[in-house]
């Protein structure tokens, strides 16, 4: 007697979850109106929306570039463009971040595309960390935020490149490829269909984690009292650590973080440099996107190590400049 085929349980996707949330909002519209009028909720909403709106254009640019690399660029190109020795490929890959105008949200899918093309992970990760901090848009914004202080622009570029290269070399020494688990792309029967399939997949996948990271950052932004920062500003060592963690929590786009750093006048210049170096490399939304793109095993190891290296790099460069 033939048995009936087992029915596979269907997993809820993002469309079903969004539809359920919309229905819930409609049903609870009246009680939600009172909650949304609260000042704390309005501040949270403002911060969340600003984070997502800042990051979305660069995320779209990043996934488009990622899809173009995955579909149209042959593997032989990267074999010729980068040195064969991984120890030399790392600084070269980090330096190429100078030519990519974007923020950390766009660099994540691009780094994923580089890994799919067979680039050594150390070089791809060095690019991932360097590109959001040393590209011309970010450096120009830093120069505008710190007028008459070209040392801050130079220090940011040097410290960011140093941290990126060190992390790439650390990965060569200690990293394991089985920590990285890239999601599969949707392939089409033509290159353009493959391009749009890959771009759409990355946009939905990374966009969901961007929203999660933005919500976490907005919550922390509302909950952390400003007086705590003032109490830490008078201690040189603690001020560096405090602004590094503040950069992680605020999750500000690298094109705008220099203006926030410039406003933190109660902190030392080195502490503000740490804010600028750490932010594009480690923050809540970036951690969430790394989990979605490279896997949790990678993110929980890579993010803490990057934070330590970025703070050490900023402190060392700050000691030389100031």
Automatic annotation (TrEMBL):
Principal subcellular localisation of the protein: membrane
GO CC terms: plasma membrane
Pfam families: ArsP_1
Statement: the UniProt record of this protein carries the keyword Cell membrane: yes
Membrane topology value: Multi-pass membrane protein
Key words of the record: Cell membrane, Membrane, Transmembrane, Transmembrane helix
Segments passing through the bilayer: 12-32, 44-73, 122-146, 153-172, 203-224, 236-252, 298-321
Family listed: Belongs to the UPF0718 family.
Name assigned to this protein: Permease
Organism: Saccharothrix variisporea
């Amino acid at each position: 007697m033939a048995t009936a085929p087992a029915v596979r349980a269907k997993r809820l996707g993002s469309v079903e979850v969004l539809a359920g949330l919309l229905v819930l909002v409609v049903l609870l519209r009246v009680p939600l109106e009172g909650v949304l009028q609260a000042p704390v909720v309005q501040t949270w909403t403002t911060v969340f929306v600003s984070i997502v709106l800042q990051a979305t254009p660069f995320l779209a640019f990043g996934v488009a570039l990622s899809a173009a690399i995955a579909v149209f660029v042959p593997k032989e190109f990267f074999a010729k463009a980068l040195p064969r020795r991984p120890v030399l490929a790392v600084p070269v890959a980090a330096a190429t971040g100078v030519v990519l105008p974007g923020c950390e949200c766009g660099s994540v899918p691009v780094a994923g595309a580089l890994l799919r093309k067979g680039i050594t992970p150390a070089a791809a990760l060095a690019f991932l960390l360097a590109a959001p901090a040393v590209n011309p848009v970010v450096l120009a914004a830093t120069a505008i935020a710190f007028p008459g202080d070209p040392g801050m622009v130079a220090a940011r570029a040097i410290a960011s490149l140093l941290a990126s290269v060190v992390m790439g070399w650390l990965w060569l020494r200690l990293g394991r490829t089985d920590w990285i688990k890239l999601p599969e792309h949707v392939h089409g029967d033509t290159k353009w269909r493959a391009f749009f399939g890959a771009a759409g997949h990355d946009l939905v996948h990374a966009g969901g984690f961007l929203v999660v990271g933005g919500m976490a950052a907005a919550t922390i932004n509302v909950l952390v009292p400003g007086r705590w920062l003032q109490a830490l500003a008078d201690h040189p060592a603690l001020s560096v650590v405090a602004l590094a963690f503040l950069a992680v929590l605020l999750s500000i786009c690298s094109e705008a973080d220099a203006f926030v750093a410039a406003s933190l006048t109660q902190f030392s210049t080195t502490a503000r440099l740490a804010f600028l170096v750490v932010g594009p490399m480690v923050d809540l939304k970036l951690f969430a996107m790394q989990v979605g793109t490279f896997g949790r095993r990678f993110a929980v190891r890579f993010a803490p190590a990057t934070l330590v290296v970025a703070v050490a790099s900023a402190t060392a460069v700050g000691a030389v400049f100031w």
